[in-house]
Amino acid sequence: MIADQPKPPPGLPLTINFNIPAYWTPEQALAVFELLDDLRDKIGAHYSVQLFEFSREQHLRAQTDQADRKVDDQSF
Fold first, then answer.
1. What is the pLDDT of residue 20?
2. Cβ neighbours of residue 1 under 8 Å, at least 6 residues apart?
């Protein structure tokens, strides 16, 4: 199971919104893409078991939700 996330200090936003510039050159866009790909690999390598477990829980929860909806739909 994934550990509880620490609460952010009061006054700090929970997310940081940013825009992707529309004027990047293809080289700049590729550099950012490769950076994000490398970051994804590093996160995956470090959290692989937790990510797998969390993904599995999400999938099972979605299946349960769908089954519950089917039961609710048949009540008409």
1. 87
2. 50, 53, 54
In angstroms, the CA 18 to CA 32 distance is 14
51: Cβ contacts below 8 Å, ≥ 6 apart = 43, 44
The set of residues, in sequence order, having a beta carbon less than 8 Å from that of 43 and lying 6+ positions away, is 51
Whether this prediction's pTM lies above 0.85 is answered by no
Contact call for residues 8 and 14 (beta carbons, < 8 A): yes
**Side chain identity at residue 56, one-letter code:** R
Q: Which positions ≥6 away from 14 have C-beta within 8 Å?
A: 8
Report the pLDDT value the prediction gives residue 33, as an integer from 0 to 100. Answer: 96
